């Protein structure tokens, strides 16, 4: 087994979060507010400057309405570069199973009182 590079893993998570956030039309500020963290904390997560707690990763996926495994780097690692950013391979079976279980739960939907802007 190859050595695990935590920093590269954190950076890949940040890249995946950035891609999904932008594709869904969220600003960092709006997504940070929706998942309950300061914008600076969320920006650090996207830059790979700190570990992403699993609950924040889960909440981000729910708010962005994307499968959890779409914001988790795959064990195969980067497959190629896209604009200087690594693109990852396919999901491992346990992540797919976890996401299937989570899909059976009601999706997160911000209320008007939360004042979440896209």
Describe the model.
With 118 residues, the protein is mostly helical. It is built from 5 helices and 2 strands; from the N terminus they run ααααββα. The longest helix is centred in the N-terminal third of the chain and has 18 residues. The protein has a single domain, classed as lambda repressor-like DNA-binding domains (434 Repressor (Amino-terminal Domain)). Strands 1-2 form a two-stranded antiparallel ribbon.
Entry summary:
This protein is mainly α and 118 residues long. The protein has a single domain, classed as 434 Repressor (Amino-terminal Domain) (Orthogonal Bundle).
Topology:
Blueprint: H1 6-23, H2 28-35, H3 39-46, H4 54-64, E1 78-82, E2 85-88, H5 93-103
Antiparallel strand pairs: 1-2
CATH topology: 434 Repressor (Amino-terminal Domain)
- Share in helix: 40-55%
CATH superfamily: lambda repressor-like DNA-binding domains
What is the total number of structural domains?
1
The average pLDDT score comes to 74
Describe the sheet with the most strands: 2 strands, antiparallel
Largest sheet: spatial strand order: 1-2
Distance linking N and C termini: 42 Å
How much of the residues is beta strand, in percent?
5-15%
What's the helix count?
5
- CATH class annotation: Mainly Alpha
Shape: globular
| Beta-strand segment tally | 2
Element string (H = helix, E = strand): HHHHEEH
Poorly predicted spans: 78-91, 105-118
């Amino acid at each position: 087994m190859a050595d695990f590079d935590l920093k590269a893993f954190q950076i890949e998570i940040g890249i995946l979060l950035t891609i999904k956030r932008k594709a869904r039309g969220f600003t960092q500020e709006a997504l940070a507010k929706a998942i309950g963290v300061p914008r600076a904390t969320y920006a650090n997560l996207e830059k790979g400057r700190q570990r992403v707690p699993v609950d924040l990763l889960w909440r981000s996926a729910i708010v962005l309405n994307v499968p959890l495994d779409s914001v988790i780097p795959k064990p195969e690692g980067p497959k190629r570069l896209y604009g200087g950013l690594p693109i990852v391979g396919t999901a491992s079976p346990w992540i797919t199973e976890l996401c299937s279980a989570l899909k059976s739960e009601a999706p997160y939907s911000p209320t008007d009182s939360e004042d979440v802007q896209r």
